[in-house]
Amino acid sequence: MTNTNGALADNDVAAIGELRNFYGALRAELGKVIIGQEKVIEQLVVCLLARGHALLMGVPGLAKTLLVRSVAETMDLQFSRIQFTPDLMPADITGTEILQETSQPGRRAFEFVKGPVFANIVLADEINRAPPKTQAALLEAMQEHRVTAAGHTYELAPPFFVLATQNPIEQEGTYPLPEAQLDRFMFLIHVDYPGEAEEGRIARETTGAGAPRLSKLIHGNQVMAFQELVRRVPVPDHVYDYAVKLARATRPPEAKAPDWIKSWVSWGAGPRAVQCLIVGAKARAALQGSYLVRTEDVEAVAEPVLYHRIITNFHAESEGVTSREIVKRLLAEVGDR
Questions:
Q1: How far apart are CA 249 and CA 233, in angstroms?
Q2: In the predicted model, what is the mean pLDDT of residues 12-37?
Q3: What is the mean pLDDT of the chain?
Q4: CATH number of 233-337
Q5: CA 64 → CA 31, 69, 71, 126, distances in Å?
Q6: For the residues of 111-135, what is the DSSP string, one character each?
Q7: How far is residue 2's CA from residue 20's CA, in Å, rounded to a whole number?
Q8: Rounded to an integer, what distance in angstroms lies between the CA atom of residue 244 and that of residue 38?
Q9: d(CA 134, CA 84)
Q10: Which long-range contacts (CB under 8 A, 24 or more apart) does 32-36 make?
């Protein structure tokens, strides 16, 4: 709990130290199989601690799937992987009812068989390869944390995370996620090419015999305790104001929005983006060992929060301007004023 003056209680201060130690151990453990990508790992862990879902975007071969599997391996949680394909049906994700023999001879009844979404960490690999109705089945579970099938509702056990991957360069045979469904993902994490030195290490260290096994570092109850801790990290009023100012600056109808936003953007970020900025900043501050959220924490999570919530128009596309460039320019111009 926080004290009446807004500071963290002594037990929460100690818990933040434990969280920082866990994060250090996690990075060391992931370093056995993942080379580089420190920023991606931080954003992924921040998203998990903030109870969000993440969409990892990157070209093939950048270890997106390996990263998610490795994170799941370090946590004592139930993990499932769903390979999205054009013929995947909603029941293949949520589960279905099948006719089963009962204990009474000659009597049969329908029994619900749970699908792979009933796990703590769900890897939705190449989510844009499945048709919209299948995507919607997963996104409903993400939002409601429950599944409805044959008139019955089944709760998903916490903690529950969906970590999806998407390939941005293949468009044939894909079904891009609508903007409203993209908004369900707290973070859009861009996975970029490694640096030259890192790629040299990849060539040397990942082409030998055998792959290292990762140790379990945390269990479900600890994850949920850290999530509750993150929510209690105090936020000064000027940081709330900064997050609101940043989100509102992305909206073309807003009077204070820059002229170039009105020229390049069709739709800006909604109120959910402000919530994600604050909660993400809280998680990032706790990971850094800070007992108070700073504007630097909001800036650190602004890119993955806003990337997919800014819809560019024809003028931006014709000039080669992307939402990533718009977010970076916003951060440089809005600043902490």
A1: 26
A2: 91
A3: 87
A4: 1.10.8.80
A5: 14, 9, 11, 10
A6: EEEE-TTSSSEEEEETGGGS-HHHH
A7: 19
A8: 28
A9: 9
A10: 32/212, 32/214, 33/66, 33/70, 33/206, 33/211, 33/212, 33/214, 34/63, 34/66, 34/67, 34/70, 35/194, 35/198, 35/201, 35/202, 35/205, 35/206, 36/194, 36/195, 36/198, 36/201
d(CA 116, CA 121): 10
Query: DSSP secondary-structure letter at 6?
Result: S
Q: With CA atoms as reference, report the closest residue to 76 among 142, 122, 117, 121.
A: 121
pLDDT, one tens digit per residue, over 204-234 is: 887 776 777 888 999 989 999 999 999 999 9
pLDDT tier at 1, thresholds 50, 70, 90: low
CA-closest candidate to residue 159, choices 223, 252, 255 = 223
Phi, psi of 68, rounded to the nearest 5 degrees: -65, -45
Distance CA 136, CA 181 (A): 8
Largest distance between two CA atoms of the chain: 75
Cα–Cα distances (Å) from 182 to 38, 78, 144, 220, 246, in that order, read 24, 25, 15, 27, 20
Q: Domain 1-232 carries which CATH code?
A: 3.40.50.300
pLDDT of residue 5: 47
Instruction: Give the domain ranges of the chain.
Output: 1-232, 233-337
Model-level pTM?
0.89
